[in-house]
Design a protein that fits this description.
Elements lengths: L1 H41 L1 H9 L12 H29 L1 H21 L3 H29 L5 H25 L4 H6 L1 H10 L6 H6 L3 H11 L10 H19 L11 H19 L2 H6 L1 H7 L6 H26 L1 H27 L10 H14 L5 H9 L5 H29 L1 H23 L11 H4 L2
Helix pairs in contact: 1-4, 1-5, 1-6, 1-8, 3-4, 3-5, 3-19, 4-5, 4-8, 5-6, 5-19, 6-15, 12-18, 12-19, 12-20, 14-15, 15-17, 16-17, 16-20, 18-19, 19-20
């Protein structure tokens, strides 16, 4: 009996690989730009302390706290514009074109850092980084939703945040040990490789069906389902393609989107959930913490080398991403979001308590490791839910007619929320210290727990093509 089970398991893995290989390889290709964006997200953590020091590489001299806050926040301004811009591009020109165009601002941003000799070049680079990020959050989740089988959609969706954090790990390491101007030279290779590899991918079947290119849409789905020719098409494949056709046909016969579409109970609920999960994603403080992790370690009184702590935190963050990747299609979205909000709230409360006791003069010798542990647990627990679930739960809770525009609205608000948090975090840390700042984020998580329990539905395995399922 044991031998039979041992033989069955490799067969299952082999079958899974045959059915899903091209989907996985396609997602890995597009995540070259996602990982590169992760590098730009984490770039301020090791670099801002350097730019503020007397050893700054900028000929113009050390930057101020205000300038540091703008370096963080300018990315979010670009992100707001990029989200809307790339939503328009993928709507009218397709998701493949939008993906390819994401590489342009990415090339520009590393060029600006390479040639820049004052903080204004960095502002421009961070704005371009935001354009890239806007493209990532508005195009990548929808691309994955378009090509992924519903059985592994959550797993493939989880890869986005994993690759962002791979980029974080790289910059947290390289930023501390490589010269300032070497990093942009290395990073200019990534968008070039991305352009070459993604150019060979077919457009998604949904985009091709919307353009009336039926044969190409069928060939595209065959590619993403790893079907080599028409003789190997299965009954399941035919049913899935017909379901897509019916969905697009129904969508095309519907009237254009009007205000009344936003007033239905399904639309109100979907929009509320979209706005809420994006607000939780940002006001939990995770993005700001990743941006200013180096400064937080300097101010938190830890006895561990901040450079080592940054790398340790990045590794633990990736472990959280991998945990989410492994279990999200088994456990479900809601439970991971709930556990993540509870855990992040508690970990931030502990980090704040340590900072407060240190501020009022308590002797905390012997527990210098606590801020590193608290921050590591914050990022690990955020990675299993708060930071990745929102990006693919939004298409799953929106009515089909509003899915694209609802995702765009949510992603645009995400960038606006990020601007508020990233701009205010360094200022708050100077005025109400670390404990006051992270306690605010902990309170947001507490409110989030209640909303998740009572208002967020489970969307695991949901069929995005069926209108009736959206209304459930």
């Amino acid at each position: 009996m044991v031998d039979e089970q041992q033989q069955i398991e490799p067969r299952r893995i082999s079958l899974w690989a045959r059915e899903n290989l091209n989907q996985v390889l396609a997602v890995l290709r597009i995540h070259i730009i996602t990982a590169s964006y992760g590098v730009t997200v984490g770039w301020p953590a090791p670099i801002i302390p350097l730019l503020r020091s007397p050893d700054t590489p900028l000929p113009s001299g050390p930057i101020t706290v205000e300038e540091a806050s703008w370096i963080g926040a300018t990315l979010c301004i670009g992100g707001t514009i990029g989200t809307i811009l790339f939503a328009i591009i993928h709507t009218y020109f397709g998701k493949k074109v939008a993906l390819l165009l994401i590489s342009i601002p990415h090339l520009i941003l590393w060029t600006l850092i390479l040639i820049g000799d004052n903080v204004w070049y960095i502002y421009g680079a961070r704005f371009c980084s935001g354009l890239t990020g806007g493209g990532v959050v508005s195009v990548v989740p929808l691309y994955i939703a378009d090509i992924a089988d519903k059985k592994i959609r959550g797993t493939l969706g989880s890869l986005t945040i994993i690759f962002i954090n791979i980029g974080l790990l790289f910059i947290y390491t390289a930023g501390n040990y490589l010269p300032y101007y070497v990093i942009p030279k290395i990073m200019l290779v990534a968008p070039a490789g991305f352009l070459i590899l993604v150019s060979f991918l077919p457009e998604t079947p949904y985009c091709l069906l919307r353009k009336g290119r039926l044969l190409e849409a069928e060939q595209s789905l065959m590619f993403y389902r790893n079907i080599s020719d028409e003789r190997h098409r299965t009954v399941e494949f035919t049913a899935e393609f017909e379901e897509m056709r019916s969905f697009i046909l129904t969508e095309s016969t519907q009237s254009r989107i009007c205000w009344a579409d936003f007033t239905t109970p399904e639309a109100k609920r979907g929009l509320f959930i979209g706005v809420f999960v994006m607000a939780l994603n940002q006001f939990s403080g995770i993005f700001a913490i990743l941006t200013y992790a180096g400064t937080i370690f300097q101010m938190s009184g830890t006895g561990i080398d901040p450079n080592v702590a940054l790398v340790l935190v990045a590794v633990i963050n990736i472990c959280g991403n991998l945990t989410s990747f492994a279990i999200i299609d088994r456990v479900g979205r809601k439970i991971l979001l709930l556990l993540s909000a509870i855990g992040v709230g508690l970990a931030l409360a502990v980090l704040g308590a340590h900072s407060y006791l240190l501020t009022i003069g308590y002797d905390l010798r012997g527990v210098e490791w606590l801020p590193v542990l608290a921050l590591a647990m914050t990022l690990f627990l955020a990675a299993i839910g708060i930071t990745n679930v929102p990006f693919f739960i939004v298409p799953e809770v929106m009515p089909p007619k509003l899915r694209s525009i609802g995702s765009t609205i949510s992603a645009t608000l995400l960038c606006m929320f990020a601007f508020i948090c990233v701009k205010l975090y360094p200022i708050l840390m100077e005025t109400i210290y670390i404990h006051g700042t992270v306690w605010i984020s902990s309170g947001v998580c507490a409110v989030g727990v209640l909303v998740i329990i009572f208002l967020i539905p489970e969307t695991k395995g949901k069929n995005l093509n069926i209108q009736s399922e959206t209304k459930r």
